[in-house]
Structure formats: C-alpha cells, structure tokens
Amino acid sequence: AQTVTQSQPEMSVQEAETVTLSCTYDTSENNYYLFWYKQPPSRQMILVIRQEAYKQQNATENRFSVNFQKAAKSFSLKISDSQLGDTAMYFCAFMNVNAGNMLTFGGGTRLMVKP
Amino acid sequence: EAEVAQSPRYKITEKSQAVAFWCDPISGHATLYWYRQILGQGPELLVQFQDESVVDDSQLPKDRFSAERLKGVDSTLKIQPAELGDSAMYLCASSTRQGLVGANVLTFGAGSRLTVL
Fold it and tell me: What is the tens place of the pLDDT at every residue in A87-111?
C-alpha cells in the first residue's frame, strides 16, 4: 500500500512571497502519478498540478511548480507570488496506475496567505 | 463546465439512523470514487467503481456501509446504522476510463457533510 506524508500541518506566507509545501511518499510502484490538490474553505477540491513519474522534468502551471525527486520519493509544491486566493488546504496525492488509478491523499497542509 | 453532482449537501441525523448519499458523475466518466474526509484530515478512499464494478472497497466498513452503481452511471452510498464517528464530509469524484486521455484527473463534487448526533 502507498502512503503519502505531509509534514507541515499549517503554514503561512505573506502576499507576493514564495512558499514551499513538502510531501513524501512511499511506494514500490514504478508507474504512478503525483498531484497537488487545493481545497479552499467550504469549497470543492480542485487540481493544482500533476506530475508523471516517468518524466524527469518538473511540472509547472503558472505560479505553481513542483520539485519531483523520484529517488528520494519527494514531491514538493512551490507557490510563487502568493495571492490571498491561495489560502486553502493543500493535499498531496499519489495515483497507482497499476491499481486501477487508485488515488491516495496525504493529511494536508493548511496554507494561510497574509495581506 | 461539467460538474459532479452530490446530494444532499448537508445531513444531520441521529445515531442508529440510516442515511444515504447520491452522486451523479460527469457524463461519460466510467470511474467513480467515494471518499470520506474527517474535518482537518485528508480524504480516505471508501470505494472505487469502474462502470458498475467495484475496483476497490478494502477500506469500506462493510458492516454498516454499502455502495452501489447499478447502471454504471450514478451511485449511492448508504450508512446503516450511523455512528457518531461517521460525522465527516463524503466526497464523490469521477474520471474517464483508465487508459483514456485524462483518466488520471479526478473531478470532485462539492461533497455531502454528515453530522451524526
């Protein structure tokens, strides 16, 4: 079974600054995807960014980028130029392609962007 | 934009009562997931369907929980009897069939928040 660990329960950042959220995972699989999902207060979960395990290049989506270290089983999310609307719970997630695309989440990091 | 529909949005019930949640995935999505999210924690997979078949229900407490997707479209998650520890958000998500483009991207519904008194 896969496990996903987010070691930072809460973080805060000043508006316009950069913040990095950490995630580690444990798996023996080679065919998988990694994701960061955002869950704003009282709103639904939305996808922020995804990374295919077979790709060495780190994924980037506008202000969001990841640092994927496959050997270390680490997958951190960097948010640049933080905005107030980035305030949310952020969940790291692992998808096992060999298990029917089963998606396992970490415990989450609560991010507060301060004005 | 297509959405995953869930109802009810909120449900308050007393322990030992029965409760049911409904999910209508995005049209054409073959894979449907039910997650339970306790406040302040990450979602935990309860059951995953591919069409009408269960892919995984290893974390579903089968003594009180049941899930079905009879025609491979919408799905119902039932709890009977409800217990205090079942208070949580129940999230439904869907994706295209495994192997197709976009199959690794889940679209989530707004969730059904259950409070058991």
Answer: 999 999 999 888 888 899 999 999 9
- pLDDT-derived band at A15 (thresholds 50, 70, 90) equals very high
Burial of A13 (0-12, 13-18, 19+ CB in 10 A): middle
Which residue, among B32, B108, B112, would best test binding to A if mutated, counting the most A CBs under 10 Å from its CB? B108
Taking CA–CA distances from A95, the nearest residue in chain B reads B104
Distance from CA of B75 to the nearest CA of A (A): 18
B33 closest CA partner among A100, A89, A6: A100
Contacts of A99 in chain B (CB under 8 A): 56
Please state, in angstroms and rounded to a whole number, the distance separating the CA atoms of residues A115 and A91.
Answer: 23
Burial class from Cβ neighbours inside 10 Å (0-12, 13-18, 19+) for residue B32 reads: buried
Q: Find the radius of gyration of the CA atoms of chain B.
A: 14
Which residue do the tokens 């970490």 mark? A106
B43 touches A at CB < 8 Å = yes
Determine which of A94-98, B50-54, B83-87 has the lowest per-residue pLDDT on average: A94-98
- pLDDT tens digits, A16-61: 999 999 999 999 988 899 999 999 988 889 999 999 999 989 999 9
End-to-end CA distance of chain A: 41
In contact, A66 and A77? CB cutoff 8 Å: yes
